[in-house]
Design a protein that fits this description.
single chain, mainly alpha, Arc Repressor Mutant, subunit A, Tetracycline Repressor, domain 2
Amino acid sequence: MAPEARERAIREAAIAVARESGIAGLTMRTVAARAGVTPALVAHYRPSMDAFVAEVFGTIVAAERAEVFGALDGDAGVRERLAAVVETLLDPGRDDVTLIWVQAWAAGARNEELAARVRGEMDAWRQGLEAVLAQGAEAGEIPASQIGEAAWLLLAMVDGMNAHSLVGWAPDDRAALARRALTAALDAPPPGRHR
C-alpha cells in the first residue's frame, strides 16, 4: 500500500474506533487492530498519540459542525434555524459525538494539544451560532445585544443536556425544553437592563 493510502487507512481506523468507543478507546493497539497493521506502523505515521487524539477529535467534531450548519434553511428565520441546530444536536443518534466531546473535555486536562483543539472547536461552534444570530439581528428579528450571550447560553444548554443524557439523566423531551430555553435566551433583556 502506498504511504498516503496507509496513512489514510490509519486515520480512518482511528475515526472508526473513536466513534465506537470514544477517544478514550484510541490507543496504538486499537487503531492498529482496526487498520490491520502493527502498532509500530501506527507509531511510525503518528508518533505522538496526544497529537493523534487531538486530530481525530477535531476531524469528527468539525465534520459534524459543517453538516449541521450546512443543512440550515437560509430562508428560515433565526429562531427556526437555531431550533434546527439545537434539536439536531440533541438527537440521541448523535451520542457517539457527544461521548467524544465529553471525553475530550476530561482528557484535555492532561493533553494540551487536545485542550487547544477543544477550545478551537468550541470557538468555531460559538462563532457559527453568532453568525446565525447576527443574521437575525440584521433582519430585525432579535436585538444585536443578544448575539454573544445567546450563543454562549445555547452551547451551554446543548452541552449540558447531551452530557446528562449519556448517563440517562435528561428530560424526556430534550427538544421541547431546548425550544423553551432558546426562546428565553433570545427574548431576555439586553445585558445590564431588566424587564
